[in-house]
Each structure stands twice: as structure tokens, then as C-alpha cells.
Specification:
alpha/beta; Kinesin; binds adenosine-5'-triphosphate
Length: about 850
Amino acid sequence: MDPPSKSHASLFQVYLRLRPPPAANSTAERFLLVEAPEEGSAPTHITLNPPNDRRRAIEKFAFTRVFEEDATQLDLFQGTKVLPLVEGVLAPHGGDGTDGLLATLGVTGSGKSHTILGSKTQRGLTQLSLDAIFRSIDQNIVDCDTNASLETSIRSSDASEAAIFSATSFIDSIYTDFSVSTSSRAGSRAATPMTVRPQNDLFRPSLSDDFPQLPGCFPTSPRGVRLVSYEDEMTHVTLLSTPPSQMKKPSSLRRTPVASTKPKLANMSPNKHYMTLTSTAKSKNVTKSRSKGDFSLSTSRRQLQRPTNFPQVPDISSIRASCDPSAEYAVLVSMYEVYNDRIFDLLTPPMKSHNTKEARRRPLLFKSTELSPDRKVVAGLRKIICGTLKEALMVLDAGLHERRVAGTGSNSVSSRSHGFFCVEVKKRRRGRTSGPWGTSTLSIVDLAGSERARDAKTQGTTLAEAGKINESLMYLGQCLQMQSDANSTPKPNLVPFRQCKLTELLFSNSFPSTSLANSTSHRRAPQKAVMIVTADPLGDFNATSQILRYSALAREVTVPRVPSITSTILANGNTGASFPRPESRPSSDRSDPGRISPVSPTNTTTTTTTKSFFQPVNMRGRTFSPLSDTERATMENAALEIARMADMIEQLNAELAHETEARMTAEAHLLSLEDRAIELEQEIREECHADFEQRLAMEMGRWKASLSIEQERGEAHWDRKVEVLTRGVGVTLTSPSDDDDDEDYGNENEDKENVLIENLEQENERLRRENTVLKRELAGRTPTRRAPLQERGDVPSSKADNNMAGLGSRMEKLRVTSGNSNHGHGNDYGSNNNSNNNIGHSTGSPKKKVRKLPAKKWEAADFQDDFM
Ligand SMILES: Nc1ncnc2c1ncn2[C@@H]1O[C@H](COP(=O)(O)OP(=O)(O)OP(=O)(O)O)[C@@H](O)[C@H]1O
């Protein structure tokens, strides 16, 4: 098996790193062997020997290079060609840079985070890459702190709708500066492995009067001032921070006496953490929660302690990447994680939901934007402009505090999300203050590890997370598989990278958009990518072989053939030789337990079997008499049958294991889907509720406005009517001498009054007719039937008949008005009773009208009534 040709356009250079055995697992059987390389070259091939089962296929894998257990971080940095990636981003020869991607992949606990982020004493590839970048552009980097217009121009050139801040303001808003810690103080979950925090120091906050607060940032203390411990009402978590009640007055800084603070800190529960608010954090209660590298306990971001120094080894001061001397550079750092197939910013703090009061992050979209139509970007990230290596490391430290981790049976600090650390290098020609910035990005990715629920002993949310992790890694595997297939076939393979967020993020820059191929916009070069696969040679064989199967650049399988028992007996029995034992390998092979001699190409197909799977110990050393042909044939048949059945059992076992695994993954997936559905439901409910409230308020406002308009209109309408009536009545009441005094009524309203009088006359006429009809009807009735009608009082009595043909006692009331009217107009209104009715009918609402009559006129009416 030859290593893949480098000329082929591989998406990734794939390296394998083996981790040293963990102390607890040192007795486990080693299943991964590195083949000895040719003289003077680095190893590139490994062989996987299934432990405890000599009949399973032996697999052989090829990588760009294999790093054995003793490889250092510096070996990795130099050997994996990270420097060319950095140079690609810096574009030393002018023009735009090329995006770079550096990722780690492996089974949980195999050393991915160790490789990428380092440890307490050793720097990882992220820190080394940052160091290389800042060293290289040392003379060419712009200083945004002294030139505000630079920040503005960087902001306007950003295509990802990002919120861009200077490192100074971000760091000041995140970190406190108490150069203190007690031994009992809660450290951070995710204190970056590389950070070294002061230990056993006194709690000694420094004073500072002002501290910038980024929008949406956690309320923080000005470099440690105003820090008190208090119990968060919602979470009942003891926090070392400023109580909400005191947050409004930054000027009234109060130093908390050391004595009063210490005891509370000592009681701080290591399990209590602000991340208990999230579902992820709940999983931490299942197992112990510790940080990567630092192994200190959890604290909230509200109290991040400013790291005092960072590990300095390995030192790469002698290594320098070249940069473009005619350009000026700016470096922007952003961090995000892919958790349950959603993207979350690690530099933006969670916001409290209005309804649930729960701190949550908003998932971000990976999409094309107005300024980036041909290329998808993570939109809405927070990006920090860093001027120095230290600033970048502090931002990295802050982001890692937000990354989701949990303790599992496989790793005490296991990443539950795929972490992305992005170094965006902006570049433009030196001295062109208004020139555009070109951007290229180095993305460093710490993938979450694949894990088996049985080994990881996960449950609940952590199990669901594992399901999501495994699912996304399966899609990644399919994409990588396409790459290795592409090496063996000339047919172009389509990489199915749009299946999930992780693969989209990892591969979309490998395939720059062709949709705008004809447009004038500049076409970007495909990214350069390096994948470091980590493996534990003593770890989980099945999980490791699965990862290696899809990540290796080439693979070869050697199927052991079941030997004929007869031939074995004949070959060994007659001579009395014992069966070959594994340890009977040549001594040269045994000298290095991790290495084997290269497998000869002729042995790599299907027939290589160096060890018998039958070990009939009790037969060893005996001699046998020759067998007859029949016996031999029977034994051959029996052996074949046994071998066939053994094969079948093995196959069924493999299928069973596969099905079990699939079921567990599906169950975990289902759990995560349920979780997601609940979250979605909650979000939709919240949105609907807010929407409903908004609409309701709007409708209420509209309804009130239209009601008041209607009311006003009604009032005005009635007022006008009453006015007309009042005037009409007023005219009738007005004496000729009054007319002289009131010229307005006499002249201006003459027409209106005439109309009214006409109306009244018509009405009067109608009522008169009605009256006549009633009279006739009454006259036609018998006396016995008349009496009750009289009692009812709504028909004219004989007395009324004689006087003015009134309509009963109810009409009597209106007679007052009628009397008044008649007083002025005499026969114009016909009988008094008729004019009463006329008023009542013509207005439609006699009560209101009557009520609105001026008091004086009523008095006059009474007087008239009495007079009559
Ligand atoms: N090359 C190495 N040298 C020394 N220690 C190592 C090495 N690789 C891994 N380790 C140790 O193994 C442990 C697990 O490693 P690490 O956390 O990096 O695994 P991981 O692959 O990131 O796991 P997960 O996917 O669960 O996050 C850590 O304690 C780490 O320090």
C-alpha cells in the first residue's frame, strides 16, 4: 500500500498522533502498531490487530505522517506543517491570503484538546500558531487603540454582521484583576489549559474608577473592586461578583473586607456553577466536572480572573513565518461552538429570556450575507481586535470558559461541542488609510470525540449530546471517506458536506462558491486543511478502528484464512513441533512493542495467516500416527463446518454489536430531538406570546381611539340635534318683544326654524289623524270595554276629550312643552296634545332633549301649565 500521492487534490492532509498510555490503562493490550519507515523518513503506516480475536481482519492504514507517543507539541507544530497554513493566511507575496483549517479528530480521551490547546505547562497548536502570527507581523500590525478610525474601517469591511470590539474593552469587561486566590477558591471550568492563575494569594482587589462595559456583557467588577460573594436568587449559586443591587453605581466602589469574603469562598460548592442554568451543565452533576488541563473548579464568567502568565514552552522564537512587508495587518479573534448542530458564540454571554428568566445563548446562522453573497459566514459573532499575543490568549481563555464540557466515563473533562477558534487576518496595503481590507482566516477546530455510551457511561442530556456528536462525526466520516475514495478513483466524488453544520463549516471553504463564477467578484482559493487524528493504542479498539477507517488516506485489509486443521496437525504433529505462539516473532520485531516490520505487499490481499486460532495446548509436543484418507476427509469436513459456523457466529456478533450501537445512537438522537423540540416549543410559545401581547395592545389602542372618536361624533350629533330642538323650542317660547332682543335667532336661523315648524306641522297632522282614529275606535267600543282602557291611562279619557284630546297621563307630561309651543304659535301646531306628540316623535329621544332644555324654559313651562 503506497501513501497517497501528494499531487492529488486532497481536501486534508491527515496526520495521526498516538497518545502515551494513561497510567490506569497501562496493562491493556496494544492493538495499534506503527510500521517501521524506510531509512531516514517518518512513519506513515500503522496496522490494527484486533485484540483477543485472531480471526478478525487485520487492517493497515496510511497517513501523511504518524507521530508516535513520544512526539512533542513542537514536533507536531513543525511536522504537521502548521507554519505553511499561517503563511497562507498572511500572504507574504502580496494579494489575498488563503484560508487555513487545522482540526483534530479522534475517540474521546485520545488527546485532541491536548494537541490543540496544550496543557498547564505546554502550549498547544493554537497558542503556537498565534505566537507565529504575532511574531511575523510584529512590525506591520496596526494599533487600533491609538487610531479610532482604524477600528471603524475594520468594522465597515466586515462581511459577517459581526459586533467588533477592541481587545482592551473586551478584556476589561470580562476579567477582574484580583491578584488573589485562596486555596479554596473556585477556579474555572475551562481555565484554558495554558493559563496559569495565581494560587494561594490574598484577596487583594485593585482599584480602578472606570471600566468599560460591552453591551450585553456580564456585569463585571472594575478589576476586582466591589467584589462580594452573594447567593444568586435564581440559581442559589454562590457567586463572587457584584450583587445586582449594587451594580448601578460604579462610582461608589466599596472594598469588601477580606475577612468577610473568605469564609463564603471556602464554602463554595464545586458543583455549583452558573452553567447549571443550561441543560449541558446539568450533565455535570452526573459526573465530576473539571477543566481541561487546569483541573480547578468551576466559576462563572462574571468573575474570570485575569491570568497572570501563560506557558512559554515550547519556544518557537527561532521559527518565523514570512509576511508581506508592504502590507499592514489587523488580527481579529472569534470563537464559537457547534452544539447539537447549532452554532453558539463563545464570546457573547448568554442573555436572560424574558419569560423563563433562563440565561441562554442565541444560536447563530451560517449564511451568505449582503457583503458576502458568494460565501457563507457565521453571522453575528462577536470579534475582538487583538494587537498582541497576550490579548489573543486572554480572549481564547475567556471563550474556553464558555465551552461546554462534562465528565464522562471515558474522559473526566470531555468536550461536548465542536469548538472553533478563528484568527481572522485582515490585510491591506500600507499607508492606504482608506483602502479596503482583505480577509483570510485560520480556523482551529477541537472536535468533540466520538464515544460509546457503554464506555462513556453517559445518560440523559450527556447521552443525547453524544448522539449528536456521533451523528455529526458520522457525516464528517462520510465526507472524509469521499476524499480517500477520490484517491483511488479518477471519477470526481461529490463530498456531501451540507448534511450538518459541522461539515458545512469544515468544508464549505474547500469548495468556494461557483454560483457567481461569471460575476466580477473575486474568486477565493480553496482553503488549505490539516487534520490531526489522535488515537490511543491501548484504548477502545472498535471506536479507534472506526475513526481510522474513515479518516485514513488509504486502507488495506488482510483477512486471516481459517487454516485447515488437518494440514496444521500434519505440518506440526508429525514433527512434534508446537504451534507458533505470538511471542515467537523474530526478536527484532519484539524490540519495539509499538512497531512491526512492514507487511510485504504480497501478503496484503486475503491470505496472510501467521498465527493459528486453534491453540490445542494439550496436544502440544505429541506425535500422531498417519491418518487414513477417510478420517482425513471427515476431519477436513468437520473443520470446514466449524470454521463456517465460527464465521457465521462472528458475523452475527458483529451485526448485533452494530445494531446495538445504532439503536443507542438513535435513542440518543431521539432524546436530543426531544430536547430540541421542547426548546423550540418554548421559543415558539415565547414568540407567540410576545406577538399576541403586541397585537392585543395595538388592537386595544385602535379600539379605544375609534371608540372615543365615535363617542365624540355621537355627542356632537346629539348636541347639534338638541341645539336645533332647543332653538326651535326657544323660537316658540320667544315673545315678539324678545325677538327684538335676540336678533341672531330671528334672522340667522329663520330657515331652519321654518323647516322645523313644517316638520312639526306634518307630525301634528299625523297625530291628529291617529287621534281621530282612536276616538272612532273608542266610540265603537262597549262601555264595559272602555273602562279598562281608561284605567290603562294611555287612551284619551272623556275628560281629556272635552279639554284637548290628550293621550293619557304619560302624554300629560309633554303637555307642558306643548302648552308652551301653543302659547307662541296658536293654531299652527294644531291641538296641544298633538304638538306634544310631535315633539316626542320628531326628535326620536324626547328624554334627552327635554333634559337638555334650559331650566328657565321649564320653569316657564310650569308656569304656563299652571296658567292653563
Ligand atoms: N500526547 C499527550 N501527552 C500527554 N498527555 C496527554 C496526551 N494526549 C492526551 N493526554 C491526556 O489525556 C487526557 C485526555 O485528553 P484530552 O482531553 O485532550 O482528550 P480529548 O480527545 O480532547 O477528549 P474529548 O473528546 O472527550 O474532549 C488529558 O488528561 C490529557 O492531558
